[in-house]
Design goal:
- About 35% of the residues lie in helices and about 10% in strands.
- Helix 2 packs parallel to helix 3.
- A hairpin with a 5-residue loop joins strand 7 and strand 8.
- The longest helix is centred in the middle third of the chain and has 16 residues.
- The chain has an eight-stranded mixed beta sheet with strand order 6-5-4-3-2-1-7-8.
- By secondary structure, it is α/β, with parallel strands linked by helices.
- The chain has twelve helices and ten strands.
- About 0% of the residues have low confidence.
- It has one domain: Aldolase class I (TIM Barrel, Alpha-Beta Barrel), CATH 3.20.20.
């Protein structure tokens, strides 16, 4: 039994899926960066990307079921040849669309069109900027990333992001610690980015680093794995459970397979309602195998990585889950 399961049992909770709200589509692992904290282990050399047949079937599912939100992620999702298809299909169906953007992609020669395209389709941009200080960003994401990110943010501001269209930034700690209170850090970010660079954004999301992929390797290499899990477990907050993203989000991978969240996807923890294959083993469900009503009430796959989402004020793809962290946090 995982540490998370033990903690979940104390308040008498069980995690089950509620009504579907968000379809999160991970189009693949290829990215123009290779960040130290990346839970996807994305990089320029990764080749796992959604093919045309899978993309077509995902687009058909969106047309048929029209989820409230279509959240496109990667890797750098814009590197997928199907990025435009998903944006335009979802918007034509009345879905709200999110692009999880690393900012530096806008500064590459091939993607100069991106700000205008996103603005024309009123896509919400959620952009990674783990600090407003250059040395901290470059330490986590690579030399020169901060300067490129600032230039990209200026281009987004110029087409209406921040003042009119939603531009949300993402903060995550540099090491094995919990993020500070989201509202306080947001005010600090806004003041610093406005005074230093004349930049505007909508909201700041604070995310706790997930103990998987590169960050997990770093923790183990430094002998900090046990201490980090203990930190997360000691900060477990039952008040976060009702709003965990896995309850209302369906994650689909680059092969069309289904997961409760993007973190489970990276760990290969398929959706619990998997069917039996011809040999009697469990075969993963694909998006086109299900409709949203079938998923409600299904038990959610969990593990020790779930401690990151339930520690302190909580953490999700939309930032903190509560303004009331556990005592002492």
């Amino acid at each position: 039994m995982s540490r998370f399961t033990q903690l979940l049992a104390r308040p008498g909770h069980e995690l089950r899926r509620a009504a579907l709200h968000t379809l999160q589509v991970n189009v693949g692992r290829k990215c123009n960066q290779a960040c130290r904290h990346c839970h996807v282990d994305a990089a320029p050399w990764r080749t796992e990307m959604m093919d045309s047949e899978t993309a077509g079937r995902v687009a058909d599912w969106i047309r048929r079921h029209r989820p409230a939100v279509v959240d496109i992620t990667g890797g750098a999702p814009e590197l997928s040849e199907h990025f435009r298809l998903f944006v335009e299909t979802a918007r034509a169906c009345g879905c709200h669309v999110i692009d999880r953007n690393n900012l530096t992609i806008i500064e590459t020669e091939a993607f100069g069109w991106l700000p205008d395209f996103l603005a024309a389709n009123e896509v919400e941009v959620i952009a990674s900027l783990p600090c407003y200080l250059e040395e901290n960003v470059d330490a986590q994401r690579g030399d020169g990333v901060f300067a490129k990110s600032i230039r990209a943010l200026r281009k987004l501001n110029a087409v209406g992001y921040g003042p009119r269209l939603p531009l949300n930034l993402v903060y995550n700690p540099l090491g094995p610690k919990l993020p500070p209170p989201q509202s306080e850090l947001e005010a600090e970010y806004k003041a610093e980015l406005r005074s230093r660079y004349g930049l505007e954004f909508t909201r700041l999301f604070t995310l706790t680093n997930q103990p998987i992929a590169r960050f997990a390797e770093e923790l183990r290499a430094r002998g900090e794995w046990d201490a980090y899990l203990e930190l997360l477990a000691n900060a477990f907050n039952p008040a976060t459970l009702d709003d965990l993203m896995c309850r209302t989000t369906l994650s689909v991978g680059w092969r069309g397979e289904l997961y409760d969240c993007d973190f489970n996807q990276m760990l290969g923890l398929h959706l619990n309602s998997a069917t039996r294959d011809s040999k009697g083993g469990k075969a993963p469900l694909h998006l086109w195998d299900v409709s949203p009503p079938e998923l409600a009430g299904c038990c959610i796959q969990t593990g020790n990585h779930c401690l990151a989402c339930t520690a302190g004020a909580g953490s999700s793809c939309g930032g903190a889950l509560t303004s009331t962290p556990t005592p002492g946090q």
